[in-house]
Amino acid sequence: MTTRLNANGVRSVTVPDRWLVPPWPARADVCAVVGHFLIRWPHPSTSADDQVAYCEGYLAALEAAPEHTLTHSGHERWYNELRDCLLRWVIVYRTRAAGVRSSSGSRGG
Question: How many structural domains comprise the chain?
């Protein structure tokens, strides 16, 4: 049986032919999505634009995943804290990316 993949992997912003996160199985639940993204965590030297893409893709994948595996009372808290962390990272990396763009634009290009 062939596993159907989600068409929405996360591509690099800086190198569009490269996957930051390749497509994951279409029916992946929250735990499978988390596992898929965690093993592809961006290297610290990854561009801020790619970090934003990674975090936004991670958020979108979490929101699209069925939550039926979140059965324990602590699961909801864990899920919400993970989402909150990703949202904060998006803000941090967007700010960093904007700073990089503004400083590179001020070099008299």
Answer: 1
* Residue 43: predicted pLDDT: 87
| CA distance to 5, 46, 47, 75, 107, per residue, from 53 (Å) | 19, 11, 10, 25, 26
Tokens of 22: 């390749």
- For residue 109, the model assigns a pLDDT of 39
- Domain-embedded: residue 4: no
Is 3 within the bounds of a domain? no
Residue type, 99: G
In a domain, 1, yes or no: no
The first and second tokens of residue 1, run together, are 């049986």
pLDDT of residue 50 exceeding 90:
yes
